[in-house]
Amino acid sequence: MNTKPDLSFGKLWNLSFGFFGVQIAYALQSANISRIFATLGADPHNLSYFWILPPLMGIVVQPIVGTLSDKTWCRFGRRIPYLFIGAALAVFVMCILPNAGSFGMKVSTAMIFGLISLMFLDTSINMAMQPFKMLVGDTVNEKQKGLAYSIQSFLCNAGSLVGYIFPFLFTFLGISNVAANGVIPDSVIYSFYIGAAILILCVFYTIVKVKEMPPKEYAMYHGLEKPLDQEKVNVFKLLKSAPVAFWTVGLVQFFCWSAFMYMWTYTNGSIANTCWNTADVSSTGYQAAGNWVGILFAVQAVGSVLWAVILPQFNNRKVSYSISLILGGIGFCMIPFIHNQYVLFLPFILIGCAWAAMLAMPFTIVTNALNGSHMGVYLGLFNGTICIPQIVAAAFGGVILSLVCNVQSNMMLVAGGLLIAGALCVFVIKETIGENP
């Protein structure tokens, strides 16, 4: 098997630059979905159910994109056609989703419209996001994968930072942050519009700059007997022969992504209650808290970028992974006890440490354990370790909220406990390099 050549920093950057735009879309979704549906009239006990759709679409779409793109080859490449289609669809949906309350529909109809829009938005984001992970696995050698995923992590956090602060920024610029009952504020609507424009520009940049390996060249560099577009795929057989790293990392992922599902779902209500002393979704305080959640998530992104620089300094990958998750767990547990909006920066910086590790380490460990055969299928299937925990967490969110006295800020304690459990499971990971599945 021939070794893939080293790539310049510029080429590694180009591979993931479009991810910056995709992540803006994902950040806008993460920070504003609970706010949007609460504004439309959703009960807090039902909020987590709205969050089932995003991971559910991810677990369906990403393995399909991985499988199909492994067998696709055209003049534009293998992964890039799916990237372009996903981005184009995301742009369209981003322009209609925040208007769910502006078309004069009844509350129930507006929520159904919002749910359908959310389903298509997450489908398209997943379709656009997965090819970037596959491009790194396809074209980057083992020596440079850590750097490549670090660049992707940096662009991911930079995109998140931009997406998170948009509503706060537009409010600062004078765009209204309140609206009629059941209507999404203009600050949120304009954020989605600008995010859509940046997304399509970034994706076009990657499409123009990146040239994928033809099937025969890919087969040569990965030691395959025949090109992927000529191989038959049995997903169940591939799962059965998946490397042990695939499953042991998945155990850690279960706890981590459950924790972050509760953060995305309940932070708005938590901060509105602890710092603005309100639960009225139509109040100025609740909408101000919604903007501040974006700022806090941006602080998390900054913490993640800074911690991503420190992570490579650790000699032991498992130790750094575990420490990162413990720091994030401590951050979550601090949130209910803080009533000053600025002091909340500290716990969200700590949460950023966990996020940095979650973005970089699982894919590095898993792709190193694969030999390149069916990379797209395996990464699509590995996405299940991200989606399934979120689906389970969302399904039980209302029940757990009842068990913690119906106080949304107590869900942050639950999230903290989950991250610490994930940190303990890190040492179960069986890390293998270059294992043939």
Features of this protein?
Growth Hormone, Chain: A; 437 residues; mainly alpha; globular; 0% strand
Helix share, percent: over 70%
Global morphology: globular
Number of strand segments: 0
- The fraction of residues assigned to DSSP E strands is under 5%
CA-based gyration radius: 21 Å
Overall number of structural domains: 1
Number of contiguous helices: 16
N→C terminal distance: 16 Å
What is the CATH fold-level name?
Answer: Growth Hormone, Chain: A
The stretches of 5 or more residues where confidence is low (pLDDT under 50) are none
The structure class reads mainly alpha
Secondary-structure element order, as H and E?
HHHHHHHHHHHHHHHH
Architecture, according to CATH?
Up-down Bundle
Task: Using the coordinates above, name the CATH class.
Answer: Mainly Alpha
Largest sheet: none
CATH homolog superfamily: MFS general substrate transporter like domains
